[in-house]
């Protein structure tokens, strides 16, 4: 998570529970990772604390991603639509199987 904006040389205070940030809240100093859903609220203070600017609460949802592995036994192919390396939870993926047809020619004695 990256928070941008604010005042030059100022501070950004934030909360992840939707509460109003204050001087006792966490000070933003660098990007951080979120592992759970959160409601981010931030306020920026100028370096001399004379000015402030608040941002509206933003709800952040962590959506799990899953990889999809397909395999063909024998010959043929499988197409994925949309093609991707991973899919968000509850995504719809259409799989289409294409068999490989081969012609078998048997040569034997003529009758």
Taking pLDDT < 50 over at least 5 consecutive residues as the criterion, the unreliable ranges are: none
Count of the domains: 2
Q: What is the succession of H and E elements?
A: EEEEEEEEE
For the biggest sheet, the summary is: 5 strands, antiparallel
Q: Count the strands?
A: 9
Envelope shape: rod-shaped
The rounded Rg comes to 28 Å
How far apart are the first and last residues' alpha carbons, in Å? 79 Å
Give an overview of the whole structure:
Helix content is 0%, strand content 33%. It is an all-beta fold. The protein folds into 2 domains: 11-60, no CATH class; 65-99, no CATH class. Strands 1, 2, 3, 4 and 5 form a 5-stranded antiparallel β-sheet that branches. A two-stranded antiparallel sheet has the order 6-8. Strands 7-9 form a two-stranded antiparallel ribbon. A hairpin with a 6-residue loop joins strand 3 (38-45) and strand 4 (52-54). The model has no long low-confidence stretch (mean pLDDT 89).
For this entry, give a set of tags.
111 residues, mainly beta, 2 domains, two-stranded antiparallel sheet, 9 strands, 0% helix, rod-shaped
What's the gist of this structure?
With 111 residues, this protein is mainly beta. The protein contains no helices and nine strands.
């Amino acid at each position: 998570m990256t928070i941008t904006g604010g005042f030059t040389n100022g501070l950004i205070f934030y909360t992840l529970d939707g509460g109003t940030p204050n001087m006792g809240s966490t000070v933003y100093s660098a990007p951080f990772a979120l592992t759970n859903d959160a409601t981010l609220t931030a306020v920026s203070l100028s370096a001399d604390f004379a000015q402030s600017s608040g941002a509206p609460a933003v709800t952040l949802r962590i959506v799990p991603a899953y990889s999809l592995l397909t395999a063909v036994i024998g010959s043929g192919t499988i197409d994925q639509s949309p093609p991707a390396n991973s899919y968000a939870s509850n995504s719809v993926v259409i799989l289409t199987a294409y068999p490989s047809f081969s012609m078998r020619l048997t040569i034997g004695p003529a009758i």
